[in-house]
Amino acid sequence: MEELKMNLVGQAAIGYGFCVQILENGKASHWGSGEYGQDKVGKWKNLVSLSAGYAHVLGLDKNGKAYATGFDPDGRCKMGGWTELVQVCAGWTHSLGLKKDGTVLAKGHPMDGQCKVQDWRNIVQLCAGSNYSLGLQRDGYVVATGADYDGQCAVGLWENVVSLHSGGFHSLGLCADGRVLATGLNEDGQCNVAHWENILSLCAGRNFTLGLRTDGTVVAAGSTADDRCRVEHWQDIAMIACGQEHSVALRSDGTVLAQGYNEDGRCNVSHWKDIVAIHAAFDHTAGLRSDGTLLIAGPEPIE
Asked: How confident is the model over 214-233, as pLDDT tens digits?
């Protein structure tokens, strides 16, 4: 486990083997692998949000300007002219930017059409899957573009959606009434959520889905490998997060629970205390302590 004293503000983004965090002064700090330039964040400033893909990371400053660095074989980090943004969103192979006027910008791998967003309008939230893109419209309907091999873009009939989520190959929509919509790869049952009710928030791993209920309990659907979906005993939960093959929950008392693949230590969080926010992605878990210290569990990064 790494323990980094940084004066953080709670916002962090985890990619494969690296983590970038926003410091109290609005600058960025990097931990882990910098093999593809993911560590080149020293000049970023006035940050308000971050988003990480597999090997690249995006930043958004308070003036709506985008930053990007990392693996860039296809232009996914070529965002120098992007301004007046309210959200940046990183997929595995592409980058999205939501403008104040509800239009969307995209850069990156073009093969599956995940960057064909030029006609989108009235968008209020973006979500990126492995090689597809989702957009939530102001009226609660959803648009999608990109790879649709397993139906992950079959969202045309969704309505009353308030937030979007992706596990990489399946798509989730949280409705205003607490129901959940799902489509996409379902070989492990990760989309079997039609009966869920009173859901407050969602997260998704590669082949599973978690939902936080309004009563602080958690429901799960999908792969049972490594007990990643054995969350029926979780109670008093304030926040959930999903890595690729593990589940994480923050309890209201500041302690953290984790289930799933753990040969590399990503679930070794039982001793964490005074945590105010959690993050998980790929094979790492991060917890922000109330004193500004960032705790990280998982494998040692490849430098």
From this structure: 999 999 999 999 999 999 99
